[in-house]
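Entry type: protein chain
Record version: 2
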Amino acid sequence: MHTRVCESLILNNWHRDGSVQIFPYGLGKEESMMNLTTGNNPGSSSFIEERLAKKFRKSLPVQVVTVDSIAIQEGWFKDDSPPIYLMKVDVEGYEPIVFQGGMQFQLLQSGKVENILMENSVTDMRQVVDFFATIYKAGYKIKWVSSVNGQAYHPEALSQIEEELSKATVGMELDGVGEALKFLVKVNCNLWWTKR
């Protein structure tokens, strides 16, 4: 996987200015070794084995670290460090676990990340509401929602999403979840979060 990303950077000449950094780790809520389940499509690889058809599954051991540990290692919390203009997280249903990285997720709280692009394919209401509430409380709002193919999903609903997120809290009663958030739980979608 890491090799393929490196090849893509070179083919697209994105390696020349140093503005793109990649790391040979998986991301999770704690440091460990995990099995990455791969298949015919490298883009569908996941730490969640059930997401791939049994006949295509292969297992690859991967060192897993937290986002915060990389931020500390790279000095991203230092006052003179530049902002992180874009953080893309598309990890086939493992997004909430990546963002946990310890529930504080200091990188988000620091305000260093300007934009977050992420996929959401998780359909567990509890997990999604807690996940989105955490990102919102860290100072972000959803600027855009699209299908996984890039078509906009109901841009007119963004104000409703904002209102519902402003009331969402980790552990809230799920019967209080509004229709816009319920929609985001039901559909696979891409989300663009920006700082509020």
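Comment: The chain has a mean pLDDT of 83.
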